[in-house]
Amino acid sequence: MDTVNTVKAATGPIRRETLHHGAVAELRAMILAGELRPGSRVAEVQLCGQLGVSRTPLREALRVLAAEGLVELRPRRGAVVTPIDPVEIGAVFEVMEALEALAGGLACRRGTAEEFAELDRLHAQLHARFEAGDRPSYFATNRLIHARIVAMARNPSLEASYAGFTAKILRARSLANYDAERWRGSLDEHEGFMAALRRRDAAAAGSLLADHSRRTADAVLQALNGGSE
Amino acid sequence: MDTVNTVKAATGPIRRETLHHGAVAELRAMILAGELRPGSRVAEVQLCGQLGVSRTPLREALRVLAAEGLVELRPRRGAVVTPIDPVEIGAVFEVMEALEALAGGLACRRGTAEEFAELDRLHAQLHARFEAGDRPSYFATNRLIHARIVAMARNPSLEASYAGFTAKILRARSLANYDAERWRGSLDEHEGFMAALRRRDAAAAGSLLADHSRRTADAVLQALNGGSE
DNA sequence: GCATGCCAAAATGTATACAAAATGGTGATT
DNA sequence: AATCACCATTTTGTATACATTTTGGCATGC
């Protein structure tokens, strides 16, 4: 019985999870982990057994995930995990670029000293993990840094949108490992926007974060289109 | 290629709507129209009778609307129409500003000549409705213009996000009628970004649309906070 | 008079039953 | 041999039944 809340903290009144809420979290995790592969059909009864719930909460969960865009519901013909469409991913990145820029600028104006210090600490960790050549850890820290910047923007709507887009992109990234050169470039760009953030230069931070996002997009899309074999 | 559109389009192929899909559309319309007032409790069985469906599809619809942020689900304690929180609306507008800027820039680069011509036509209509002093018609055309610009950006992700934010803002706007001076200013700003769009000036169009969005936000928030009595 | 505890009614969460449509395979016809 | 039609199976969509939990009121006690 784990509390798999993506957003809400553990505080507040006794929070009794409902089954469909838990099912949403589990299914989302399964999709993001690639356990349910893009394009694959979602068999309701099979998942019911797997998750230990009946069809009702499972179906409610599927509607939520469909609203998030992670699954597609075809009337009377079942659900499929949304296939990864490079065109769609490109569109998502395009919006991400704008959101990163917004987040960077707002973070400069609204982040606390503690948050900036934490950002520095995470950036050092990113560096260390690059040196160690540990890709998965690097990406984990990378994601955390961006999430923190978004959190520093103090805008729940931005945060929610960002999380949704991140989920979509994450699935694409998992099957598009870009090369070592791009990895180096990514780190350099982090250096760049970190410098801007340190001096609270909102315009520069936003602009550099947007650049970083665009270059990441280019790399991911290139890997998606060309580097399958 | 089925189109699961938020707007009920003309019947394409055999379009077999499911009940919960229809319920989502109806409930969303009711919420946006203010028929279900913000903060009010949503009684399941009552709505079941009203919509002519049983609890199952209605509940599925409520999950979807909760994912969209239009209702809030409190475990074991029913659903409420999400109250209008000026702070949240402010946050939404902040993101909208970035999306408008993005849409304006992309529209300049990707819109077709026909679309720009249509935009001109709608802008003239906007003018006429301002002169006629017909507020509701003005706002309808206004929304249409912005929707068209977003469509010209050729980015379904942007379009979907934009639609979601628009829905939230619309509810706030419906109870915040701003004054005549702002109305005039709004029209002037439309003139401004239309000029930029006509000459395909992406940077200017984006910037002016962002300005327009920010000023609209200011007016709405001011009306929300101060102008209740 | 006010607070507390308990019970009844209502509402939510979940499971299951039923109806209708889609899927897949078999057999008949050309 | 290929195609079409038809039927059984499976699967989805919906309704309803059941189990908990919340809620409101009433009685009891202080």
Topology:
The structure is a homodimer of 229-residue chains.
Chain A: H1 19-32, E1 41-42, H2 44-51, H3 55-68, E2 71-73, E3 79-81, H4 86-110, H5 113-131, H6 135-152, H7 156-174, H8 180-198, H9 202-226
Antiparallel strand pairs in A: 1-3, 2-3
Chain A binds a DNA duplex (30 and 30 nucleotides) through helix 3.
For the largest beta-sheet of chain A, the strand count, sense and barrel status come to: 3 strands, antiparallel
In the CATH classification, which architecture of the largest domain in chain A applies? Up-down Bundle
Strand order in the largest sheet of chain A: 1-3-2
Low-confidence stretches of chain A: 1-13
Structural class of chain A: mainly alpha
The helix content of chain A, as a percent range, equals over 70%
Briefly note the CATH topology name of the largest domain in chain A.
Four Helix Bundle (Hemerythrin (Met), subunit A)
Largest interface (C-beta under 8 Å):
A-B, 39 and 37 residues
CATH top level assignment of the largest domain in chain A:
Mainly Alpha
**What's the order of the H and E elements of chain A?**
HEHHEEHHHHHH
Question: What is the 3D shape of chain A?
Answer: globular
- Oligomer classification: homodimer
The total tally of domains of chain A equals 2
From the alpha-carbon coordinates, what is the Rg of chain A to the nearest angstrom?
A: 19 Å
Distance between the termini of chain A: 41 Å
InterPro entries (chains A, B): GntR_C, TF_FadR/GntR_C, Tscrpt_reg_HTH_GntR, WH-like_DNA-bd_sf, WH_DNA-bd_sf
Pfam families (chains A, B): FCD (PF07729), GntR (PF00392)
Keywords (chains A, B): DNA-binding, Transcription, Transcription regulation
Domain HTH gntR-type (chains A, B): 17-84
